[in-house]
């Protein structure tokens, strides 16, 4: 089983193809960790992934709400988290983070390194590196 995949995006026009490749590669995982420096494109990639999966809701950064819930055209639920502003893990326990992760629904998680002790054992890591020419290198890694 291939546990790693490297992709490249030259710009916004490539995002649809990259999102297709990501969804195909990680289809057996419900927890997807989006990692990269500030401005690397985590939210933009989340939007492209949601579009590829048929999300009918407006996809936007959940920076202040911590989690956004989206529905797909097939009635599936996707949860989108942004933990950049998390100060205390107790906040997440209070919102029932484990129930989200254990729901069987896809969870897109930005800034997962802030909550590493709560991440389930099985996940796909999506690491985005922004290059000087505005292109992106995206490394996908499966973790069991």
From TrEMBL:
Q: Which PANTHER family does this entry report, sorted A to Z?
A: TRNA THREONYLCARBAMOYLADENOSINE BIOSYNTHESIS PROTEIN TSAE
What are the protein's GO molecular function terms? ATP binding; metal ion binding
Q: Name the GO terms of the biological process aspect.
A: tRNA threonylcarbamoyladenosine modification
Q: What is this protein called?
A: tRNA threonylcarbamoyladenosine biosynthesis protein TsaE
**Which keywords does this Swiss-Prot/TrEMBL entry list?**
ATP-binding, Cytoplasm, Magnesium, Metal-binding, Nucleotide-binding, tRNA processing
In the UniProt record, which is one GO cellular component term? cytoplasm
A Pfam entry, by short name? TsaE
Q: Does the entry feature the keyword Transmembrane, yes or no? A: no
**Superkingdom of origin organism:** Bacteria
């Amino acid at each position: 089983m291939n546990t790693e995949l490297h992709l490249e995006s030259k710009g916004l026009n490539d995002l649809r193809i990259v999102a297709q490749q990501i969804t195909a590669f990680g289809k057996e995982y419900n927890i997807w960790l989006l990692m990269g420096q500030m401005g690397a494109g985590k939210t933009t990639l989340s939007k492209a992934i949601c579009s590829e999966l048929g999300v009918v809701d407006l996809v936007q950064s959940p920076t202040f709400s911590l989690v956004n819930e989206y529905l797909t055209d097939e009635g599936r639920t996707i949860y989108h988290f942004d933990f950049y502003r998390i100060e205390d893990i107790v906040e997440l326990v209070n919102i029932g983070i484990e129930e989200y992760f254990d729901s069987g629904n896809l969870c897109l998680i930005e800034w997962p390194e802030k909550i590493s002790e709560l991440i389930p054992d099985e996940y796909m890591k999506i690491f985005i590196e922004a290059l000087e020419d505005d292109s992106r290198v995206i490394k996908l890694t499966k973790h069991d």
